[in-house]
Design brief:
- The chain has one domain.
- The chain is about 90% helix and about 0% strand.
- It contains three helices and no strands.
- Helix 1 crosses helix 3.
- The longest helix is centred in the C-terminal third of the chain and has 40 residues.
Length: about 80
């Protein structure tokens, strides 16, 4: 699978309403549980923080695939013009 195909797949996944709902639901759940956790429960807070970071990294990874594919397409298109 080339970069443009990977980008198309990543965009399709990120644009899927169920995936968007999952990201939003999980993010909100992590934040709510963190906000309502007892101050002394540092293990739970750390786990929730890690969950937020992993969720963010997953989204950034897909966005990076999309950007890479767009750059590959732009390079391919510029070679066609010249």
């Amino acid at each position: 699978m080339n970069e443009e195909q990977r980008a198309d797949n990543a965009k399709r996944i990120l644009d899927d309403p169920l995936v968007q709902e999952a990201f939003n639901t999980l993010r909100q759940e992590f934040l709510d549980r963190w906000e309502n956790s007892p101050a002394q429960d540092t293990d739970a807070r750390e786990t929730l923080w890690l969950g937020l970071k992993i969720l963010s990294r997953l989204q950034v990874h897909f966005e990076s695939l999309i950007a890479s594919g767009q750059m590959a397409k732009a390079q391919r298109d510029s070679k066609i013009l010249f």
